[in-house]
Design goal:
heterodimer, A: 325 residues, alpha/beta, Rossmann fold, 2 domains, 4-stranded mixed sheet, 12 helices, B: 373 residues, 5-stranded parallel sheet, two-stranded antiparallel sheet, 7 strands, globular
Amino acid sequence: MPVMTMLDALNDALHIAMEKDDDVVMLGEDIGKKGGVFGTTAGLHEKYGDMRVMDTPLSECGIIGAAVGMAVYGIRPVPEIQFQDFIFPGFDQIVSEMAKMRYRSGGQYTCPMVVRTPSGGGIRGGHYHSQSGEAYFAHTPGLRVIMPSTPREAKGLLLASIFSDDPVIFLEPKALYRHSKEEVEEGYFTVDMDTARVAREGKDLTIVTWGAMLPIVEGAAAEAAENGIDCEILDMRSMLPWDANTVIESVKKTSRCIAVQEAPRTCSFASEIAATVAEKCIDSLEAPVARVSGFDTPFPYTLEHIYKPDKKRVLGAIEYTANWE
Amino acid sequence: MTQATEMLQVMNASGKAKGKTPSGLKAEDLKAMFKAMLETRLLDQRGMNLQRQGRIGFYVPSFGQEASQIGAGYAMKDSDLLFPSYRVVSIALLRDVDLKVLFDQAWGNATDLCKGRQMPNHYAIKDIGWTSISSPIGTQISHAAGAARAMQIRGDKSAAWVWFGDGGTSSNDFHAGMNFAGVWKAPCIFMCENNHWAISVPQEMQTASQSFAAKAIAYGMRGVRVDGNDVLAVYEAAKEARARAEKGEGPTLIETVTFRMGPHSSSDDPKRYQDPALFEEWQKKDPIDRFREWLKGKRIWTKTWEEEITADMQARIAKAVEAAEGTPAPELETIFTDVYADVPRMLKEQHNELIEQIKKSGDIEDTSEAFPL
């Protein structure tokens, strides 16, 4: 089985999708000859040409709006927004058009498209190349909001997204693009978008996380295990629709819960986890639900490493929650 | 590109021939165009009355814009995809829509194709190539560019037609859609109905351009300005644009200079911002009256024929209204379906919570107020 980085795995998924279905097309800024600023679309333009791999004018609302029209016509566009921070000119198209097409037309029209975009910090890019905006999208019924956490997950979730008949916001944790490698199956396969993944089984405490926070949480859990605290880690995969059931079952077992995210805290997806656990697991809870997150500030440049939750902050929350009596 | 500022006409303001009659139009075509224009006027009159009677919640009339729409509609081909605004119901009539489809949507009832999820006039009718309408202005413009690009990718010979007003040219999506279609040389026809008003804001406050058609020049596409109350001039311009699209010569922006002879919607009162003299001036150029005069000149129109069309349309409207009004509201579950291809577990649970609540405390009271816009 080949060993891949997340970048390799995403690129592989795009090649497979274009090979599998002539209706899969890509559009975005610098995705053609350059192969994307991170190299995610490398080799696609060379293989499939201008008609299927389109470098577009520099307009995010145009990229997403045109992709909506393509999807309504019946093909499967996979637009790329160069950084998630640049998506907001296209936000109206995402919220008012892409997300609502099936509903508002009574199911006559669908909008099968995947907006791929690198998300989160880790490249010293300041707040315009580092934000984690998943909560904006998770508040929009009709969208699927996906964030993978490993190379294999990234490939399987991207293929599932491209061949889903729902519109998807696919947030790529850029900090993990070249972070590590793992074995990834060759060829076409999908990963279930509707079910959260148990990334580590444990009995003392549930940590709910997604995307780039996963390896940080795994590191903290390994260290906590040395101190006798056995953490269960849930990798959410999808933030809309989201798998509350797996979270609830886990917390009923462990009685303690922490949600870890890179995004700012207020009205975040971690807040949704905390609210749901409070509603559904009150009889099992033995400690308050904790949130480890970015701060309610813009994402800083020089002090990026302090803004982003690290192993120490996660460990602090683990100790606090595990020792609560 | 002088066409971008000059205004093309086939008939003058009183319906007398000015330019040559568009080639290829037979008497039956001219009659079909007149019939669709008249039917649109009758439909809109009924729609407004239904709203005034409190029987439907909202209505958007297209009074005065019938020629601007039907002229272009007649140049479309069956396989063409439409990206309409909420003010072009006439094209649906031209495409032989079942009137019940329109009134079901106005009532948002159980047989509405959109399942009661949108305000009146926000139709989606896939059978006639009519895509789904949204309220935010201009969003459909880039969709049309994208659909036209998809036609190129698939090698289809269709075209995408998109409708918007003078106000719509100020939107982000107008710029994006025009720019993308221009770069792609996509088979897309941009129909800008300059009806002089974006609700209460007049066209001169919308742009400092010489004309709306002139905007095409900056996007590297053909821009044409046409008398929008002259159905034959609109047809001529639209037919040429359609032919250019098919030949791979790229998109066209057509500005039809017309006038919104009614309110923005049933919730609006133009007396608050419009000089009555301006309305009277345009009333003299009513597109239906002009075309009737032109047809009289060709000895195609008769009073009996118009009376027959009117009686037939009114009877068909009455029948459709009765059926739509007598149809109950959509089932409760339609709140939760079509959000995704399949209903996810979280929505099934929310649906069940709602059912349990209603079982306990009875039906939920409707407390919505009248729509202000």
